[in-house]
Write a structure and sequence with these properties.
Strand content: under 5%
Largest sheet: none
Low-confidence stretches: 1-22
Number of strands: 0
Length: 252
């Protein structure tokens, strides 16, 4: 039903080949998509954001790049948080949608850091959903996108490139380049740049614990539980805080 409604909406806005009319509608669609994304803690709004961003991107115009990369980000959130317990085939389809949007954003604006960042992130969650041993071929692509981000703007998404690389080196098996020391180096760098990012703190806690640095790991988890959420990532904070508390209880 939701897909049918989206197609109908697209036909009303984009039908008949009225490209100029579609571009006139694009700013309004993008505003609606952003409003839905701001309410992404509600799963219905998270899904609506994915659909509205698709319509805004299809409408084209000067805001197409933003509609594409923000839509890729919405696909990530919908899969990683709102639908995290969905069947793998559904998550893979959603992440592939996000990958396609991010690739389109990169093609439209090769020097747009956001497109490169979300392309790398979506490669990562797609691969993780498939299973690490089935997706090792994606690792060079993730590294390449994060290196491009480092060159364009390393501060994107709360010093996200360092965070992504830090997590990658933690997740990779040792015989494929996994390295906790590199993971810590990248994650500490990310946290230095964005000290209120709870996801970075959570990832760092896991790497610390894996390296036998339990006290430092517990400090990061306690910081997450007690911190005031950064408004930019408040919807994600609930899930991150719950995981931090779970690990605190497990490791105590």
């Amino acid at each position: 039903m939701r897909k049918a409604m989206v197609v109908l909406a697209g036909a009303v806005i984009l039908g008949g080949g009225f490209a100029a009319r579609a571009q006139d509608a694009a700013p309004d669609l993008l505003a609606k998509a952003r409003a839905a994304y701001e309410q992404r803690a509600n799963p219905v709004q998270a899904k609506q954001a994915v659909d509205l961003y698709a319509l805004a991107a299809k409408a084209g115009g000067p805001q197409a790049y933003d509609a594409l990369w923000e839509g890729a980000r919405a696909c990530y959130y919908d899969g990683h948080y709102a639908l995290k317990d969905a069947p793998d085939k559904d998550l893979l389809a959603l992440y592939q949608d996000g990958i396609d949007r991010a690739k389109a954003a990169v093609a439209l604006e090769p020097k747009g850091v956001e497109g490169h960042f979300w392309l790398g992130v979506l490669y990562g969650v797609y691969g993780e959903t498939k299973g690490i041993f089935k997706s090792l071929a994606m690792v060079p692509g993730i590294k390449q996108e994060m290196q491009t981000c480092m060159e364009l703007d390393p501060s994107v998404e709360g010093y996200g490139p360092d965070r992504v690389l830090g997590r990658l080196y933690f997740k990779l098996p040792g015989f494929k380049g996994g390295d906790n020391k590199k993971s810590i180096q990248y994650l500490e760098s990310s946290l230095k740049g964005a000290p209120t990012n709870a996801l970075t703190k959570l990832y760092l806690a896991e790497t610390y614990k894996d390296e036998g640095m339990k006290e430092k790991a517990m400090d990061q988890l306690k910081g997450i539980v007690s911190m005031t959420p950064d408004p930019r990532w408040a919807p994600e904070q609930t899930s991150i805080k719950a995981e931090a508390q779970r690990l605190l209880d497990k490791w105590s």
